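Q: What would this chain look like folded?
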Amino acid sequence: MEVQETRVQTDRIFTIPNILSMARLAGVPLFLWLILAEYDGWALAVLMLSGISDYLDGKLARRWNQISKLGRLLDPAADRLYILSTLFGLTYREILPLWLTGALLARELMLLVMVWILRRHGYPPPQVNFLGKAATFNLMYAFPLLLLSDGSGSLAWLASVFGWAFAGWGTTLYWWAGILYVVQVRRLVKADATADRNPPDAG
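A: My prediction, written as structure tokens:
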């Protein structure tokens, strides 16, 4: 399987990139509460800070040679939790339709199944690739714009147009990345099955 593997450079937990990722995770429940309470301005501010920290933690980890196993877990976990909390909040407020929420949640469920299969074969979860990151960035642009569209006037209209454009691209890329993961897992399982049927000669 063509797994995009990033070399671990440190076992330290409290690095600057990891602390940024932890702070981003800690902001998830606050962000969700702000959306549900309709404090949209503050919710957008938290989401913007999350996006900045998402950019910084990866950049600093590479620049300062602080890529860690914990960091590789925290970063995608924070991305998914922000997406899931935004989906819940915007769907609850009827800004997002159920079909879009269902499409994104179905992709997450599919990926969880793939991770379970990988673990059964003794492999770690797949690393986040460029396509998956691009999908996340599109969705993280789409959600605040759709939140801004919950109003009236020209600003709300423009936010709706661009928000749905980003949502369409983000959902498409999200599923594309998910399908690539399925293909990778299928190749790995097939290769393992072939190796089991044809063990190497002992001599």
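Helices lie at 16-36, 40-63, 69-92, 98-120, 130-148, 154-197.
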